[in-house]
Amino acid sequence: MTTLTSPHDLLAAVPFLVGFHPTNSLVVIALTDQQIGMAMRIDFPQELDPDQIDALASHLLREGADSALIVAYIPDEVADSDFILEPLREAIALRGVLIRECLQVHRDRWRSTICQDQECCPPEGTAMPDISTSRISAEQVAAGQLMPFANLAELEASLDSLEVNQELLNEIRKIPAIKYGSDNVIALEREGALAVNELATEFSDLGIVEDNKLLALVFVRLLDVQVRDFAMGLVTDQNIMVLASLWRWMLRIAPPGFVAPVATLFAATSYEEGDGALAQRALDRALADDSRYPMALLLRKVFSAGWPPAQFAEMRADLHPRVCALLFPPESSQAEVS
């Protein structure tokens, strides 16, 4: 994201960072060399919880931040945010992280809690700017980002299942599951990985995939851990937006029983893009489909611990060559999305 030069920029940026226009929320944003890192959002606390404050402050250290931004969206019935913001600012400062700005948003008005200039930041606050016409919004949309959802409920609804495609379901039923212990396991896993490559290429070219046989093969083979890990490892800086769109779309058309792998793939790409809220909602979909799905449970722990997206991406990238070595001979070049 571009450099933020004013409180208006910050207020416009937060919805893009968390995926929706927040209310009743506390948002902490990591900065490293003035570059925006990951935003961490929690529901606005009703009372002081030292462990929660410590988790937010520690998140900045894990992100490698040298400074931070705070925005508190206070519920209408709460008169003041000092009971949370003062301990939070103190906890962050004790960790050697500079707080560059701390805004309070209350009843459609905002004010800086660290600015002492009453002409600039009057006690009664200033009316919220029109975020939709801001420079930040224009730059984000131009870069291919979708406009943030109006609220958390709309964000969650964007991941809801669409009506099941009966033709797709029929094709899925024709594909045999992998029988582990048989001689053709690697061959079927390789078939799945190549199908993922083909699917990603077609989606990149057309923005949709209408080949139900190909979709069915990918849905079935993603139930295999190696194929899913292969798909997770395909993400690069160049294709992450395409793959995130692909997994979101597939998440919505996935039949019951085939949701969890796709949901974890979408969660991983969302997290790497810095959209922790969307990543957590995707994991909700995965665990609703399979409450014991190991990768979803693992990612829940990773995301909740505030791992920096770059560190998560590095871990994922380290795994990919090992998966490719298992599925493809060393001289093969078929293991990457073109």
Give a summary of the structure in a few sentences.
With 338 residues, the protein is of the alpha+beta class. It has helices spanning 7-18, 50-62, 82-94, 135-142, 152-157, 166-174, 185-206, 212-221, 225-232, 240-253, 259-272, 276-289, 294-304, 309-327, and strands at 25-32, 35-43, 67-74, 98-106, 109-112, 126-127.
Structural descriptors:
Cytidine Deaminase, domain 2, elongated, 6-stranded mixed beta sheet, alpha+beta, single chain, 14 helices, 338 residues, 2 domains
Describe this structure as you would to a colleague.
There is one protein chain. With 338 residues, this protein is an alpha+beta fold. It folds into two domains: 7-149, Cytidine Deaminase, domain 2 (3-Layer(aba) Sandwich), CATH 3.40.140; 166-327, no CATH class. It has 14 helices and six strands. The protein has helices at 7-18, 50-62, 82-94, 135-142, 152-157, 166-174, 185-206, 212-221, 225-232, 240-253, 259-272, 276-289, 294-304, 309-327; strands spanning 25-32, 35-43, 67-74, 98-106, 109-112, 126-127. Strands 2-1-3-4-5-6 form a six-stranded mixed sheet, sandwiched between helices. Strand 4 (98-106) and strand 5 form a beta hairpin. Helix 1 runs parallel beside helix 4 (135-142), helix 2 packs across helix 3 (82-94) and helix 9 (225-232) packs across helix 14 (309-327). The protein is elongated, with a radius of gyration of 22 Å. The two termini are 26 Å apart.
